[in-house]
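dumping this here before i forget
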Amino acid sequence: MIRGMRPIISKCFEIVVLLLLISAPAFALGSGESSECPPKSDAVQATVPIPAPEGQTLRFYALGDTGRADAGQAAVAETMARFQTDFAAAFVLLLGDNFYPRGVRSSGDPQWKSKFEQMYDSSRLLLPFYAVLGNHDYRRNEKAQIEYSRINPQSRWKMPARYYSFSHRLSDGTGIDFFGIDSNTLEDDPSQLTWLESALESSSAEWKIVFTHHVLYNYGHYGNDQKLINGLENSLIRGGVDLYLSGHEHQLQILKSEFGISYMTSGAGSRPRKAGCGENTVYAAGLPGFLAFEIARTQLTTYVVLADRGVDFVYTILK
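structure:
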């Protein structure tokens, strides 16, 4: 259903898992060279839990910086479509910069077909794409991306507003709440932050996930966004957010938790840049791909999926 600083760190710890697939040629383990920050020495081997018990987990994808209609976007889209055959995700989070280089002109812009509807094969990816706005989307008519949802309710594209939330509940009663926000206007729009703080406070979900375009922390091209940290981080901490997902940096990156919040970047949806790493890096790769997630009551597992290579790394957070 779409709705328009004291973390308990001791209840959450993390383990890093390196994936080893023995009998899945289409999605074999990538070479270790794909990550500019090699997996930690305490990594252990694991397998992807396919299929999952129905209703006991939630699976979804996250990717950003997609809309180029080029070979890079096509490779990521095809990899996701193939991966979906077994993974069976429920939806996709689109993390902004949905249409390069300057957004769309209108809800009838031809880019809707070339960079979204036709790019993500509807016969294999027939699932909702919950989108937020990126900085490039603001260069023309950002409101058209909201309008497209309204006038095309049958479309997979879902952006009911600049910021919004939706919920999912597992068969065991576990609640998972998602909060999509517009990081482009957060500094100049105090009503959005008020909405987010109120929504987080009223949520009783076991898992709270914020998804948006701009990073807070990252070792990439742009680095940390200090203005966004100053304006948003305390609200995330007080609100009990477990995961902050962003794009903007054209890479795949997983950082160690800060104040109980895991920061992950999935901005390699079309044209990646070289990834950097630092003391808090768990994984970083400047290669095209996306992140896949599986959530159960007591754990959240992230799969790094590289275009044309498959799953390269797995990271699990235990609650």
